[in-house]
Amino acid sequence: MKRRLARHKWILLLAAIGPGIIAANADNDAGGIWTYSLAGAKFGYGLLWVLTIVTISLAVTQEMGARMGAVTGKGFGGLIREKFGARWSAFAISVMLIANLGTTNAEFAGIATSVKIFGGSKYVVIPIAAVAVYMLIAKFDYRRVQKVFIVSSCLYLAYVISGFMAHPDWGFALKSLARPTMSFKTDYLLMFIAVVGTTITPWGQFFIQSFIVDKRLTKDDLKFARGDVYVGAFFTNFISFFIIVACAATIHARGITIQDAADAALALKPLAGSFATILFGLGLLNASLLGAAVLPLTSAYATCETFGWEAGIDKTPRQAPIFYGLFTFFIVVSCLIVLIPGVPLTTLMVLSQVLNGALLPIILIFVLLVTNDKSVMGEHTNSKAFNIIATATTVGLIIMTLLLLASPLIARFTGTAVP
Q1: Can you tell me whether residue 318 is helix, strand or coil?
Q2: Distance between alpha carbon 147 and the CA centroid of its chain, in Å?
Q3: By the 8 A CB rule, do 322 and 330 touch?
Q4: What is the pTM of this model?
Q5: Closest CA to 64 of 167, 204, 161
Q6: 3-class DSSP state of 293
Q7: What structural domains does the chain harbor?
Q8: How many CB atoms lie within 10 A of CB 319?
Q9: In this predicted model, what pLDDT tens digit does every residue of 361-393 receive, in sequence order?
Q10: Does residue 96 contact residue 363 with C-beta atoms inside 8 Å?
Protein backbone atom coordinates (compact mmCIF):
# COMPACT_ATOMS: atom_id res chain seq x y z
CA MET A 1 0.00 0.00 0.00
CA LYS A 2 2.79 2.42 0.94
CA ARG A 3 4.63 1.60 -2.29
CA ARG A 4 1.50 2.33 -4.31
CA LEU A 5 1.03 5.68 -2.56
CA ALA A 6 4.68 6.57 -3.10
CA ARG A 7 4.47 5.58 -6.78
CA HIS A 8 1.25 7.60 -7.14
CA LYS A 9 2.98 10.68 -5.71
CA TRP A 10 5.86 10.29 -8.15
CA ILE A 11 3.41 10.01 -11.05
CA LEU A 12 1.65 13.21 -9.91
CA LEU A 13 5.00 14.97 -9.54
CA LEU A 14 6.15 13.97 -13.02
CA ALA A 15 2.78 15.05 -14.43
CA ALA A 16 3.12 18.51 -12.84
CA ILE A 17 6.77 19.09 -13.80
CA GLY A 18 7.35 21.39 -16.72
CA PRO A 19 5.57 24.77 -16.63
CA GLY A 20 7.52 26.24 -13.70
CA ILE A 21 10.93 25.03 -14.82
CA ILE A 22 10.40 26.00 -18.46
CA ALA A 23 8.89 29.42 -17.67
CA ALA A 24 11.67 30.31 -15.25
CA ASN A 25 14.51 29.09 -17.45
CA ALA A 26 13.11 30.82 -20.53
CA ASP A 27 13.67 34.03 -18.55
CA ASN A 28 17.39 33.33 -19.04
CA ASP A 29 16.99 34.10 -22.71
CA ALA A 30 19.33 35.94 -25.08
CA GLY A 31 18.61 39.31 -23.50
CA GLY A 32 19.07 37.74 -20.10
CA ILE A 33 22.44 36.19 -20.95
CA TRP A 34 23.69 39.50 -22.31
CA THR A 35 22.27 41.44 -19.33
CA TYR A 36 23.96 39.15 -16.80
CA SER A 37 27.19 39.18 -18.82
CA LEU A 38 27.21 42.97 -18.88
CA ALA A 39 26.29 43.15 -15.19
CA GLY A 40 29.31 41.01 -14.29
CA ALA A 41 31.65 42.68 -16.79
CA LYS A 42 30.75 46.22 -15.75
CA PHE A 43 29.89 45.95 -12.05
CA GLY A 44 31.75 42.81 -11.01
CA TYR A 45 30.02 41.07 -8.12
CA GLY A 46 28.13 44.28 -7.25
CA LEU A 47 24.72 43.22 -8.58
CA LEU A 48 24.67 39.67 -7.24
CA TRP A 49 22.55 40.77 -4.27
CA VAL A 50 19.71 41.57 -6.69
CA LEU A 51 19.52 37.86 -7.58
CA THR A 52 18.65 36.98 -3.99
CA ILE A 53 15.64 39.30 -4.02
CA VAL A 54 14.65 38.37 -7.56
CA THR A 55 14.67 34.62 -6.79
CA ILE A 56 12.11 35.11 -4.02
CA SER A 57 9.98 37.47 -6.12
CA LEU A 58 10.09 35.14 -9.13
CA ALA A 59 9.02 32.15 -7.03
CA VAL A 60 6.08 34.08 -5.57
CA THR A 61 4.83 35.68 -8.80
CA GLN A 62 5.16 32.46 -10.82
CA GLU A 63 3.36 30.49 -8.10
CA MET A 64 0.52 32.98 -8.28
CA GLY A 65 0.26 32.42 -12.03
CA ALA A 66 0.37 28.64 -11.65
CA ARG A 67 -2.26 28.81 -8.90
CA MET A 68 -4.60 30.95 -11.00
CA GLY A 69 -4.34 28.48 -13.87
CA ALA A 70 -4.84 25.38 -11.72
CA VAL A 71 -7.76 26.79 -9.71
CA THR A 72 -9.70 28.44 -12.56
CA GLY A 73 -8.63 26.40 -15.59
CA LYS A 74 -8.41 29.70 -17.50
CA GLY A 75 -5.64 31.81 -18.98
CA PHE A 76 -4.59 35.09 -17.38
CA GLY A 77 -5.97 37.25 -20.21
CA GLY A 78 -9.34 35.51 -19.97
CA LEU A 79 -9.52 36.14 -16.23
CA ILE A 80 -8.71 39.83 -16.69
CA ARG A 81 -11.48 40.07 -19.29
CA GLU A 82 -14.00 38.38 -16.98
CA LYS A 83 -13.15 40.54 -13.98
CA PHE A 84 -12.32 43.93 -15.53
CA GLY A 85 -13.91 43.88 -18.98
CA ALA A 86 -12.70 43.96 -22.57
CA ARG A 87 -10.93 47.34 -22.40
CA TRP A 88 -8.70 46.45 -19.48
CA SER A 89 -7.95 43.01 -20.89
CA ALA A 90 -7.02 44.59 -24.23
CA PHE A 91 -4.77 47.04 -22.35
CA ALA A 92 -3.02 44.21 -20.45
CA ILE A 93 -2.55 42.17 -23.62
CA SER A 94 -1.18 45.23 -25.44
CA VAL A 95 1.39 45.77 -22.67
CA MET A 96 2.47 42.13 -22.94
CA LEU A 97 2.60 42.14 -26.76
CA ILE A 98 4.76 45.29 -26.85
CA ALA A 99 7.20 43.75 -24.37
CA ASN A 100 7.09 40.39 -26.15
CA LEU A 101 7.84 41.78 -29.60
CA GLY A 102 10.89 43.56 -28.23
CA THR A 103 12.03 40.41 -26.42
CA THR A 104 11.44 38.16 -29.46
CA ASN A 105 13.68 40.52 -31.44
CA ALA A 106 16.25 40.02 -28.68
CA GLU A 107 16.01 36.22 -29.04
CA PHE A 108 16.87 36.30 -32.74
CA ALA A 109 19.52 38.93 -32.02
CA GLY A 110 20.95 36.39 -29.57
CA ILE A 111 21.03 33.73 -32.26
CA ALA A 112 22.87 36.16 -34.55
CA THR A 113 25.31 36.99 -31.75
CA SER A 114 26.02 33.33 -30.97
CA VAL A 115 26.72 32.75 -34.68
CA LYS A 116 29.36 35.49 -34.46
CA ILE A 117 31.21 33.47 -31.80
CA PHE A 118 31.56 30.50 -34.15
CA GLY A 119 32.25 32.56 -37.27
CA GLY A 120 28.94 31.91 -39.05
CA SER A 121 26.59 34.23 -40.95
CA LYS A 122 23.34 35.44 -39.43
CA TYR A 123 21.82 35.63 -42.92
CA VAL A 124 22.07 31.85 -43.15
CA VAL A 125 21.39 30.78 -39.57
CA ILE A 126 18.48 33.12 -38.68
CA PRO A 127 16.11 31.81 -41.44
CA ILE A 128 17.02 28.21 -40.53
CA ALA A 129 16.34 28.89 -36.85
CA ALA A 130 13.00 30.54 -37.67
CA VAL A 131 11.83 27.53 -39.69
CA ALA A 132 13.02 25.11 -36.98
CA VAL A 133 11.13 27.02 -34.26
CA TYR A 134 7.95 27.12 -36.34
CA MET A 135 8.14 23.40 -37.18
CA LEU A 136 8.68 22.51 -33.51
CA ILE A 137 5.39 24.11 -32.51
CA ALA A 138 3.35 23.37 -35.65
CA LYS A 139 4.33 19.71 -36.09
CA PHE A 140 4.92 18.40 -32.56
CA ASP A 141 2.25 17.71 -29.98
CA TYR A 142 2.21 19.17 -26.46
CA ARG A 143 4.21 16.37 -24.81
CA ARG A 144 7.01 16.42 -27.37
CA VAL A 145 7.30 20.20 -27.22
CA GLN A 146 7.52 20.08 -23.44
CA LYS A 147 10.28 17.45 -23.61
CA VAL A 148 12.28 19.66 -26.01
CA PHE A 149 11.84 22.64 -23.67
CA ILE A 150 12.94 20.65 -20.60
CA VAL A 151 16.05 19.28 -22.36
CA SER A 152 16.84 22.84 -23.46
CA SER A 153 16.51 23.99 -19.85
CA CYS A 154 19.05 21.38 -18.73
CA LEU A 155 21.62 22.69 -21.24
CA TYR A 156 21.93 25.88 -19.18
CA LEU A 157 24.34 23.92 -16.97
CA ALA A 158 27.02 24.91 -19.51
CA TYR A 159 27.21 28.25 -17.69
CA VAL A 160 27.96 26.54 -14.39
CA ILE A 161 31.01 24.92 -15.97
CA SER A 162 32.07 28.27 -17.48
CA GLY A 163 31.74 29.85 -14.03
CA PHE A 164 34.04 27.31 -12.41
CA MET A 165 36.57 27.61 -15.22
CA ALA A 166 36.80 31.38 -14.54
CA HIS A 167 38.18 30.67 -11.01
CA PRO A 168 36.28 33.45 -9.22
CA ASP A 169 36.62 34.59 -5.61
CA TRP A 170 33.85 32.34 -4.28
CA GLY A 171 33.91 33.80 -0.78
CA PHE A 172 33.45 37.35 -2.03
CA ALA A 173 30.82 36.24 -4.55
CA LEU A 174 28.73 34.51 -1.88
CA LYS A 175 29.03 37.51 0.45
CA SER A 176 27.87 39.76 -2.40
CA LEU A 177 24.59 37.82 -2.57
CA ALA A 178 23.64 39.27 0.82
CA ARG A 179 25.40 42.66 0.64
CA PRO A 180 23.29 45.30 -1.14
CA THR A 181 25.03 48.13 -2.97
CA MET A 182 23.22 51.05 -4.55
CA SER A 183 23.94 53.84 -7.00
CA PHE A 184 21.80 56.51 -8.64
CA LYS A 185 23.86 56.57 -11.84
CA THR A 186 21.90 55.93 -15.00
CA ASP A 187 23.93 52.90 -16.07
CA TYR A 188 23.48 51.23 -12.67
CA LEU A 189 19.72 51.89 -12.60
CA LEU A 190 19.37 50.63 -16.17
CA MET A 191 21.22 47.45 -15.28
CA PHE A 192 19.23 46.97 -12.06
CA ILE A 193 15.90 47.20 -13.91
CA ALA A 194 17.24 45.01 -16.73
CA VAL A 195 18.32 42.27 -14.28
CA VAL A 196 14.87 42.26 -12.69
CA GLY A 197 13.06 42.64 -16.03
CA THR A 198 14.90 39.74 -17.62
CA THR A 199 14.03 37.43 -14.72
CA ILE A 200 10.46 38.40 -13.80
CA THR A 201 8.71 39.18 -17.07
CA PRO A 202 5.22 40.23 -18.22
CA TRP A 203 5.13 37.30 -20.66
CA GLY A 204 6.19 34.88 -17.92
CA GLN A 205 2.96 35.50 -16.02
CA PHE A 206 0.86 34.72 -19.08
CA PHE A 207 3.01 31.77 -20.16
CA ILE A 208 2.99 29.75 -16.96
CA GLN A 209 -0.75 30.11 -16.54
CA SER A 210 -1.45 29.10 -20.13
CA PHE A 211 0.95 26.16 -19.81
CA ILE A 212 -0.76 25.00 -16.60
CA VAL A 213 -4.16 25.18 -18.32
CA ASP A 214 -2.92 23.43 -21.46
CA LYS A 215 -1.45 20.67 -19.29
CA ARG A 216 -4.85 20.34 -17.59
CA LEU A 217 -3.50 20.66 -14.06
CA THR A 218 -6.09 21.35 -11.36
CA LYS A 219 -6.07 22.59 -7.78
CA ASP A 220 -5.45 18.99 -6.71
CA ASP A 221 -2.05 19.27 -8.41
CA LEU A 222 -1.11 22.54 -6.67
CA LYS A 223 1.37 20.97 -4.26
CA PHE A 224 3.45 19.53 -7.09
CA ALA A 225 2.98 22.57 -9.34
CA ARG A 226 4.39 24.74 -6.55
CA GLY A 227 7.41 22.49 -6.25
CA ASP A 228 7.96 22.80 -9.99
CA VAL A 229 7.76 26.61 -9.76
CA TYR A 230 10.12 26.88 -6.78
CA VAL A 231 12.73 24.59 -8.35
CA GLY A 232 12.50 26.59 -11.58
CA ALA A 233 12.93 29.93 -9.77
CA PHE A 234 16.00 28.68 -7.93
CA PHE A 235 17.55 27.05 -10.99
CA THR A 236 17.16 30.08 -13.25
CA ASN A 237 18.96 32.39 -10.81
CA PHE A 238 21.49 29.69 -9.98
CA ILE A 239 22.47 29.89 -13.65
CA SER A 240 22.35 33.70 -13.59
CA PHE A 241 24.77 33.67 -10.65
CA PHE A 242 27.37 31.70 -12.62
CA ILE A 243 27.05 33.95 -15.69
CA ILE A 244 27.68 37.08 -13.61
CA VAL A 245 30.49 35.40 -11.67
CA ALA A 246 32.23 34.16 -14.84
CA CYS A 247 32.27 37.66 -16.34
CA ALA A 248 33.12 39.38 -13.05
CA ALA A 249 36.13 37.12 -12.42
CA THR A 250 37.55 37.54 -15.91
CA ILE A 251 36.30 40.50 -17.91
CA HIS A 252 35.67 42.92 -15.02
CA ALA A 253 38.84 41.88 -13.20
CA ARG A 254 40.95 42.68 -16.29
CA GLY A 255 39.10 45.91 -17.11
CA ILE A 256 38.04 44.64 -20.54
CA THR A 257 35.26 46.50 -22.40
CA ILE A 258 32.71 44.34 -24.21
CA GLN A 259 30.09 45.35 -26.77
CA ASP A 260 27.94 42.21 -26.87
CA ALA A 261 27.59 38.67 -25.55
CA ALA A 262 29.90 37.41 -28.28
CA ASP A 263 32.64 39.67 -26.94
CA ALA A 264 31.97 38.26 -23.46
CA ALA A 265 32.36 34.69 -24.73
CA LEU A 266 35.50 35.49 -26.75
CA ALA A 267 37.02 37.43 -23.82
CA LEU A 268 36.83 34.25 -21.74
CA LYS A 269 39.13 32.39 -24.16
CA PRO A 270 42.52 33.74 -23.01
CA LEU A 271 41.32 33.99 -19.40
CA ALA A 272 39.41 30.74 -18.84
CA GLY A 273 40.22 28.65 -21.92
CA SER A 274 38.65 28.02 -25.32
CA PHE A 275 36.31 25.38 -23.87
CA ALA A 276 34.72 28.07 -21.65
CA THR A 277 34.15 30.20 -24.74
CA ILE A 278 32.50 27.31 -26.61
CA LEU A 279 30.24 26.52 -23.65
CA PHE A 280 29.28 30.17 -23.26
CA GLY A 281 28.46 30.42 -26.97
CA LEU A 282 26.43 27.20 -27.02
CA GLY A 283 24.57 28.35 -23.92
CA LEU A 284 23.66 31.62 -25.64
CA LEU A 285 22.45 29.79 -28.76
CA ASN A 286 20.36 27.38 -26.68
CA ALA A 287 18.85 30.21 -24.61
CA SER A 288 18.04 32.20 -27.74
CA LEU A 289 16.31 29.26 -29.45
CA LEU A 290 14.24 28.47 -26.33
CA GLY A 291 13.18 32.10 -26.02
CA ALA A 292 12.45 32.34 -29.76
CA ALA A 293 9.93 29.51 -29.34
CA VAL A 294 8.42 30.50 -25.99
CA LEU A 295 7.86 34.25 -26.58
CA PRO A 296 5.79 33.97 -29.81
CA LEU A 297 3.97 31.00 -28.28
CA THR A 298 3.05 33.03 -25.19
CA SER A 299 1.88 35.95 -27.32
CA ALA A 300 -0.39 33.68 -29.34
CA TYR A 301 -1.75 31.83 -26.31
CA ALA A 302 -2.53 34.93 -24.25
CA THR A 303 -4.16 36.86 -27.09
CA CYS A 304 -6.36 33.97 -28.22
CA GLU A 305 -7.42 33.05 -24.69
CA THR A 306 -8.35 36.63 -23.93
CA PHE A 307 -10.61 37.03 -26.96
CA GLY A 308 -12.00 33.49 -27.07
CA TRP A 309 -10.20 32.27 -30.18
CA GLU A 310 -9.07 28.67 -30.65
CA ALA A 311 -5.57 28.09 -29.26
CA GLY A 312 -3.24 25.24 -28.37
CA ILE A 313 -0.19 23.29 -29.52
CA ASP A 314 -2.30 20.18 -29.98
CA LYS A 315 -4.48 21.97 -32.55
CA THR A 316 -3.57 22.25 -36.22
CA PRO A 317 -3.11 25.57 -38.07
CA ARG A 318 -6.51 25.01 -39.70
CA GLN A 319 -8.18 24.50 -36.33
CA ALA A 320 -6.48 27.54 -34.74
CA PRO A 321 -5.57 29.93 -37.60
CA ILE A 322 -5.28 33.09 -35.46
CA PHE A 323 -3.13 31.28 -32.89
CA TYR A 324 -0.65 30.10 -35.52
CA GLY A 325 -0.96 33.39 -37.41
CA LEU A 326 0.18 35.38 -34.36
CA PHE A 327 2.93 32.87 -33.66
CA THR A 328 4.19 33.19 -37.24
CA PHE A 329 3.89 37.00 -37.21
CA PHE A 330 6.19 37.36 -34.20
CA ILE A 331 8.80 35.06 -35.72
CA VAL A 332 8.78 36.66 -39.18
CA VAL A 333 8.83 40.29 -37.97
CA SER A 334 11.61 39.62 -35.47
CA CYS A 335 13.70 37.82 -38.09
CA LEU A 336 13.33 40.66 -40.58
CA ILE A 337 14.34 43.27 -38.01
CA VAL A 338 17.44 41.33 -36.94
CA LEU A 339 18.45 40.71 -40.56
CA ILE A 340 18.57 44.46 -41.32
CA PRO A 341 22.25 45.28 -42.02
CA GLY A 342 23.82 47.27 -39.19
CA VAL A 343 20.92 46.81 -36.75
CA PRO A 344 22.24 47.31 -33.15
CA LEU A 345 21.82 43.79 -31.74
CA THR A 346 23.16 44.69 -28.29
CA THR A 347 20.75 47.61 -27.96
CA LEU A 348 17.85 45.35 -28.92
CA MET A 349 18.77 42.81 -26.24
CA VAL A 350 19.38 45.17 -23.31
CA LEU A 351 16.53 47.61 -23.97
CA SER A 352 14.07 44.72 -24.32
CA GLN A 353 14.89 43.69 -20.75
CA VAL A 354 14.57 47.27 -19.47
CA LEU A 355 11.18 47.49 -21.22
CA ASN A 356 10.12 44.26 -19.51
CA GLY A 357 11.08 45.68 -16.12
CA ALA A 358 9.30 48.98 -16.72
CA LEU A 359 6.05 47.33 -17.92
CA LEU A 360 6.04 44.48 -15.38
CA PRO A 361 4.34 46.45 -12.55
CA ILE A 362 1.23 46.89 -14.72
CA ILE A 363 0.88 43.12 -15.11
CA LEU A 364 1.68 42.41 -11.44
CA ILE A 365 -1.09 44.77 -10.34
CA PHE A 366 -3.58 42.65 -12.32
CA VAL A 367 -2.05 39.48 -10.82
CA LEU A 368 -2.51 40.83 -7.29
CA LEU A 369 -6.08 41.92 -7.91
CA VAL A 370 -7.14 38.56 -9.35
CA THR A 371 -5.31 36.34 -6.84
CA ASN A 372 -6.92 38.24 -3.93
CA ASP A 373 -10.43 37.92 -5.33
CA LYS A 374 -12.31 35.19 -3.43
CA SER A 375 -15.02 35.06 -6.09
CA VAL A 376 -12.34 33.86 -8.53
CA MET A 377 -9.87 31.99 -6.32
CA GLY A 378 -12.12 30.73 -3.53
CA GLU A 379 -10.00 29.50 -0.64
CA HIS A 380 -6.85 29.77 -2.73
CA THR A 381 -6.33 33.53 -2.44
CA ASN A 382 -2.91 34.95 -1.57
CA SER A 383 -1.35 34.62 1.83
CA LYS A 384 -0.22 37.80 3.62
CA ALA A 385 3.44 36.97 2.92
CA PHE A 386 2.80 36.56 -0.81
CA ASN A 387 0.96 39.88 -0.96
CA ILE A 388 3.82 41.66 0.80
CA ILE A 389 6.47 40.20 -1.53
CA ALA A 390 4.49 40.80 -4.74
CA THR A 391 3.53 44.33 -3.67
CA ALA A 392 7.12 45.14 -2.69
CA THR A 393 8.31 43.89 -6.09
CA THR A 394 5.74 46.03 -7.90
CA VAL A 395 6.41 49.17 -5.87
CA GLY A 396 10.17 48.63 -6.05
CA LEU A 397 10.14 48.45 -9.84
CA ILE A 398 7.98 51.57 -10.10
CA ILE A 399 10.42 53.45 -7.85
CA MET A 400 13.46 52.23 -9.79
CA THR A 401 11.85 53.22 -13.11
CA LEU A 402 11.07 56.69 -11.75
CA LEU A 403 14.65 56.97 -10.44
CA LEU A 404 15.92 55.99 -13.88
CA LEU A 405 13.85 58.73 -15.51
CA ALA A 406 15.00 61.21 -12.87
CA SER A 407 18.65 60.11 -12.84
CA PRO A 408 19.91 63.06 -14.96
CA LEU A 409 18.32 65.46 -12.46
CA ILE A 410 19.71 63.48 -9.52
CA ALA A 411 23.16 63.57 -11.07
CA ARG A 412 22.92 67.31 -11.53
CA PHE A 413 22.12 67.97 -7.88
CA THR A 414 24.57 65.40 -6.49
CA GLY A 415 27.38 66.40 -8.80
CA THR A 416 27.83 62.91 -10.27
CA ALA A 417 28.34 62.19 -13.94
CA VAL A 418 25.65 60.53 -15.99
CA PRO A 419 27.07 58.06 -18.53
Answers
A1: coil
A2: 19
A3: no
A4: 0.76
A5: 204
A6: helix
A7: 27-414 (1.20.1740.10)
A8: 12
A9: 888 899 999 999 999 999 999 999 989 998 988
A10: yes
